[in-house]
Amino acid sequence: MRNSFLFTSESVSEGHPDKVADQISDSIVDLFLSKDPEARIACETLTTTQLVVLAGEIRCKGVFENGEWAPGALEEIEATVRNTVREIGYEQDGFHWESFRFENNLHAQSDHIAQGVDATADKDEGAGDQGIMFGYASDETPDLMPATLDYSHKILERMAADRKAGTAPFLEPDAKSQVTLRYANERPVEATAIVVSTQHAPGYYFHNGEGDEAKYAELRDYVKGVVAELLPAELLTANTVYHINPTGRFEIGGPDGDAGLTGRKIIVDTYGGASPHGGGAFSGKDPTKVDRSAAYITRYLAKNIVAAGLARRCTIQLSYAIGVAEPLSIYVDLHGTGTVDEGRIEAAIPQLVKLTPKGIRTHLGLNKPIYRQTAAYGHFGRTATGDAFPWERTDLVDKLKAALAE
After folding, report:
1. Which residues are catalytic?
2. pTM to 2 decimals?
3. Cα separation, 227 vs 236, whole angstroms
4. What's the rounded Cα separation, in Å, for the pair 89 and 312?
5. Measured distance CA(206)–CA(256) in Å, rounded
6. How far apart are CA 20 and CA 254, in angstroms?
7. C-alpha span between 66 and 111 (Å, rounded)
8. What are the CA-CA distances from residue 176 to residues 14, 132, 222 (Å)?
9. pLDDT above 60 (res 123)
10. Nearest CA to 48 among 86, 92, 106, 100?
């Protein structure tokens, strides 16, 4: 590991068109799981100017069975989609929750997929797809997340809260952030660059002599104030460079400014580039899909390993074959920061957590409508409260220590 380097991560707000799509897809997952905890969902969303389109495969008792929709189901799906967009805050001419055109192209899950995934008297529930999934944890922040991504998320989350509370009325829903930190001895020591581009009310820009300089100064000073509140003071120095709406005017945004699709922000959703990624997106998928559930259990395991003091950084990989219950491989990398051998941890993990799709869902309690809230500001580094974000709990620490002390 290099001792001194620059590293950057980005985030996007809940109003970014891809995140609008993610949140719609996960609102459909939550709707179906609230009706049937064993529902099967693969819901993709497209958003663009005054249009939302759903597509994908489903199976859900009481909603969609034997190729037929239950009475009122289609209306409830549309109401769920419109309410999701309303909560994000889109009431613009180019994208308005009440008036956009809506298409629902969801259809029945393939029987040929179901035969490999469903449990029978002779076999355990199989993985919903093949693939590799990674989990990561680092002691850079209290959330055990990469600092660059953690701060990027928190900046936009605060801005969205202020927008909805009315304390920053010049903000509109679409925004992006980016944080670059300088590391020394593997620790963040200085923020060298902060980038924030936010959609804004008319007139709040100034670029190349055009716009309203006083209004732009209000927006710029607000953003710098948010950054100062959220980043540790020692990271912000005279060398920190701010790029706030560097292209100038940003009034057209969201799905009206750029089309959005489910699953295009997988690095934002995970570790900001600090960890490998298997390539599978999360949103729109029920927890039988290991793209989602195995990524959650690997984060859970990596976080507990770091929380237990067994390493300062940890990456875990699992791999699966569609229709096969047990993982094909388990890989642990402590990046030279561990206090125990990686091989011992690899041997201990299956004794502590059953890593079949059903075992993961049972251990973490994933068959619940808990996913809409994951679809903006990252799936990891969040607070585990109630049923939400169970993969962020550190309740495996003592068991890990005991297993590795033997």
Report:
1. 16, 18-19, 44, 57, 176, 250, 258-259, 264-265, 285, 289, 291
2. 0.95
3. 9
4. 39
5. 22
6. 8
7. 11
8. 10, 28, 15
9. no
10. 100
Nearest to 31 by CA among 84, 77, 98, 78: 77
Q: Which amino acid belongs to residue 16?
A: H
Distances (CA, A) of 49 to 25, 202, 247, 310: 18, 19, 22, 50
Backbone φ and ψ of 133, nearest 5°: -130, 140
Give the Cα separation of 173 and 286 in Å (integer): 27
In SS3 terms, the chain reads as CCCEEEEEEEEECCCCHHHHHHHHHHHHHHHHHHHCCCCEEEEEEEEECCEEEEEEEEEECCCEECCEECCCHHHHHHHHHHHHHHHHCCEECCEECCCCEEEEEEEECCHHHHHHHCCCCCCCCCECCCEEEEEEEECCCCCCCCHHHHHHHHHHHHHHHHHHHCCCCCEEEEEEEEEEEEEECCEEEEEEEEEEEEEECCCCCEECCEECHHHHHHHHHHHHHHHHHHCCHHHCCCCCEEEECCCCCCCCCHHHHCCEECCCCHHHHCCCCCCCCCCCCCCCECCCCHHHHHHHHHHHHHHHHHHCCCCCEEEEEEEECECCCCCCEEEEECCCCCCCCHHHHHHHHHHHCCCCHHHHHHHHCCCCCCCHHHCCCCCCCCCCECCECHHHCCCCHHHHHHHHHC
Written as one letter, the residue type at 310 is: L
State both tokens at 403: 């297993």
User: Side chain identity at 399, as an amino acid letter?
Assistant: K
> How many CA atoms within 13 Å lie on the side-chain side of 383?
3
Using alpha carbons, select from 339, 389, 377, 380 the residue that is nearest to residue 144: 380
State pLDDT tens for residues 238-268.
999 999 999 999 999 999 999 999 999 999 9
Q: What is the pLDDT of residues 342-401, one digit of tens each?
A: 999 999 999 999 999 999 999 999 999 999 999 999 999 999 999 999 999 999 999 999
Distance between CA atoms of residues 23 and 342, nearest Å = 37
What is the rounded CA–CA span in Å between residue 12 and residue 176?
A: 4
